[in-house]
Specification:
Layout (H helix, E strand, L loop, with lengths): L20 H26 L2 H17 L2 H4 L3 H23 L4 H5 L8 H19 L3 H12 L4 H8 L3 H23 L6
Helix pairs in contact: 1-2, 1-4, 2-4, 6-9, 7-9, 8-9
């Protein structure tokens, strides 16, 4: 027994926008048969259950607008294609519109140092080079061989004809002198 709806259209004539009853049943059958698997498929793409359900709902809305004869014989393929394409569209849109986190804002956009880092490094290098010139010739030589060329104490010893112990002493005293000199030059302008 069917209940009459208020303002129901004449049963003999269907408005163009309402699907015939057989089409409505066809859509209900499609929902029952495919909704769950479409939600799972959309969820795999979007990783969000609510958005996946919205995508599936849009998929069935698009099915409502289709002529059943156009999708007959390949309904499952049509539903999964429409659902997948819509999920990918949502994913792309969200990637473009995702707000940047504080971590994203702090992360450098390029592996190359920015202008401020380049300037700071040049200033630091200039200070080190200036402080290095205040050292004895032997200290400068062993420090350069160690830190610019990466030689071991034994290799520096062979290059300079100094003992390994002497090389170690020159490096130790040279670094100590450099630290003191750099600490003095940075003391007035330090912002700590």
């Amino acid at each position: 027994m069917k209940s009459a709806e208020p303002d129901a259209p004449d049963p003999g004539r269907q408005p163009a926008s309402d699907p015939p009853k057989r089409d409505a049943q066809w859509i209900r059958d499609a929902v029952v048969k495919h909704e769950r698997s479409l939600i799972i498929s959309a969820h795999r793409i979007l990783m969000d259950l609510d958005r996946a359900r919205e995508v599936v709902q849009e998929t069935f809305l698009r099915l409502c607008a289709q002529d059943p004869e156009r999708v007959q014989g390949h309904l499952t393929e049509w539903l999964f294609t429409v659902c997948r394409n819509r999920a990918l569209d949502v994913q792309r849109k969200e990637k473009r519109m995702n707000p940047m986190s504080d971590q994203d804002l702090e992360a450098p956009s390029s592996p190359e140092p920015g202008p401020l880092q380049v300037l700071e490094k040049k200033e630091s290098t200039s200070e080190v080079v200036l402080a290095l010139t205040a050292l004895s010739g032997n200290q400068q030589e062993v420090l350069r061989l160690k830190f610019q060329n990466g030689l071991s104490y034994k290799e520096i010893s062979r290059v300079t004809n100094l003992t390994v112990t002497n090389v170690g002493f020159l490096i130790h005293t040279g670094l100590k002198t450099l630290r003191k000199s750099l600490a003095r030059s940075n003391a007035p302008g330090m912002a700590q």
